[in-house]
Specification:
alpha/beta; 6-stranded parallel β-sheet; 31% helix
């Protein structure tokens, strides 16, 4: 039941009608009996600062942030947590008691938690291979570095973007995209952060012959849930992690900050979020 005292949050983006976040958070609101709402907030880029600065005045506890605003939000909030600074993007905003806006990035947390859920005993004890150099890749790289990865191989179709991301840490080595198959040798983890394999996009052209059977394979794409990469990895005996887990787990810190409940991800919730299709 929602009352006049309901806690308010939502997701800011443009466009935003495709977002699964209202469905995701709505599940938890109902499950935990929270007097709260989570709504889509379509905001054009030119109106971003005005809209975000209005959150405290409208009684919002905060919001999530999606494309195209994640980087622009760095210039809007009052405080930025260290992880968001390193990633260079914000996906969660919390309104403090004094109205100050704190921006964080929970994508790195969501990525690692998704891996731990699917493979509780996995550790980055060998080389980690990351495909892509966009915003998602940056969160994945930061997450793996913070988790203790000693070697990270980064490949992107545009090498310059990979080199810019590799400047984060000397443990990150850039490898040419044409060497992507050979880069899988002795890897402990393969992560695809590109849009290749997503519905409507080209498939990821990658031979897995050199990938050890012990390697964990993750695709952050979740439309489809099982991409060609995951299907091929599973067929050859690799453990796989689909992209939905990262989406669900990255939502947990924001929900806890806004609504005062530490939520848990469940199989039923996964099915419910996917039903949006």
């Amino acid at each position: 039941m929602i009352t006049g005292a309901a806690t308010k949050s939502g997701i800011v983006g443009w466009p935003v009608e495709h977002s699964r976040s209202p469905r995701l958070h709505g599940w938890w609101l109902q499950l935990y009996g929270v007097d709260g709402v989570y709504v889509p907030l379509p905001v054009q880029p030119a109106d971003l600062e005005t809209a975000i600065r209005a959150l405290p005045k409208l009684g919002f506890a905060g919001c999530n942030v999606t494309l195209p605003h994640k980087q622009a939000m760095l210039r809007v909030v009052d405080e930025i947590d260290p992880v968001a600074e390193r990633i260079g993007a914000i996906n969660t905003v919390v309104v403090g008691p004094d109205g100050r806006l704190t921006g964080s990035n929970t994508d790195a947390f969501g990525f690692i938690e998704a891996l731990r859920e699917a493979a509780p005993n996995w550790r980055p004890t060998g080389p980690c291979v990351v495909l892509g150099a966009g915003g998602a890749a940056r969160a994945v790289v930061v997450a793996l570095l913070d988790a203790g990865a000693s070697e990270l191989r980064l490949l992107n179709r545009t090498r310059a973007k990979a080199e810019a991301l590799a400047a984060l840490d000397p443990r990150v080595a850039v490898i040419d995209w044409r060497e992507r198959a050979a880069a899988l040798a002795d890897a402990a983890l393969l992560v695809n952060t590109t849009s290749l394999g997503m519905i409507g996009n080209d498939e990821l052209d990658l031979t897995l012959d050199d990938l050890p059977s012990t390697a964990l394979v993750n695709d952050i794409v979740y439309t489809p849930l099982y991409t060609s990469l995951l299907d091929r990895a599973m067929a050859r005996g690799n453990r796989i992690v689909d992209g939905l887990g990262m989406l669900l787990h990255q939502a947990r810190p924001g929900f806890a900050a806004w609504f005062g409940v530490q939520p848990a991800v469940s199989a039923d919730q996964r099915h419910y979020v996917l039903e949006q299709d």
